[in-house]
Amino acid sequence: MPAESAPAPAHAVPAGRPTPRRNLVVLDMAGTTVADDGLVEDAFAAAARRVGEDPAPMLDHVRATMGESKISVFRHLLGGDETRARRANAAFEEAYAERVAAGAVAPVPGAADAVRALRDQGRTVVLTTGFARVTQDALLAALGWQELADLTLCPADAGGRGRPYPDMVLTALLRTRAVDDVRGVAVAGDTGYDMLTGVRAGAGLVAGVLTGAHDAERLTASGATHVLGSVAELPALLARLEAP
Q1: Confidence class for position 18, pLDDT limits 50, 70, 90
Q2: What SUPFAM superfamilies would the database entry show (predicted)?
Q3: What angle, 0 to 180 degrees and rounded to 10, lies between the N-to-C axes of helices 39-50 and 82-101?
Q4: pLDDT tens track for 22-76
């Protein structure tokens, strides 16, 4: 599992080189646009039991690594045993999907309106997740969000590496071609791993939100340029930052 470390200092922008408009917005799902309410943790516990493990000793690590690719978390928890990690990850995806199918998911209040507002501002919006594609699609269908964003991405769409690697953010840039400078990307999420992903991708704005796993201190330590109460505040923040 990649170690989380403090982000590098932001690069100085040469005089006369304005920060580009943030025309690409990359948003996390669970905890950021989708209310978690313990669903991820509950699915992890169910997955651990299905592979014969007691989930109780694992949950502190699960909480600390919220936002990281799920298969990476299982590799760590199961001592690098790839076969068991893949079995556990499949069990997690199945358990989470069962809960989605049972109607146990809801949007973060104002999240869908925020995505629409960002698109109305002329920005391209991409929803990302650490889940497998089948689980992400089930989540989007349950919420009626299949057409909400311009693009949705999971780790498999970015070569298999999820957070805290920058791959999904950079894949969003390459697929949408919404900006020609990484500083024109805004990233928002609820975990330290979301913040690291944004920092490592060179995003011009990395916003932490307080509707999910990690607090303001953790988000800031991991590189957040801004901390918001909710993703619902993001359209107004971007408009304010870019006002003449």
Answers
A1: low
A2: HAD-like
A3: 130
A4: 999 999 998 999 997 778 888 888 888 888 888 888 888 888 877 777 788 888 8
Main-chain phi, psi angles of 169, to 5 degrees: -65, -45
Exposure string of 122-156, with b = 16+ CB inside 10 Å and e = fewer, is ebbbbbbbbbbeebbebbbebbebeebbbbbbbbe
Cis peptide before 164 (omega within 30 of 0): yes
- Please state, in angstroms and rounded to a whole number, the distance separating the CA atoms of residues 113 and 211: 16
Higher pLDDT, 36 or 152: 152
Q: What order of strands is seen across the sheet that includes strand 226-228?
A: 151-153, 124-128, 24-28, 185-189, 205-209, 226-228
What are the structural domain ranges in the chain?
Answer: 24-36+106-241, 39-101
Classify domain 24-36+106-241 by CATH number. 3.40.50.1000
Task: Determine the 3-state secondary structure of 40 from DSSP.
Answer: helix
Half-sphere exposure of 127 (CA within 13 A, CB side): 27
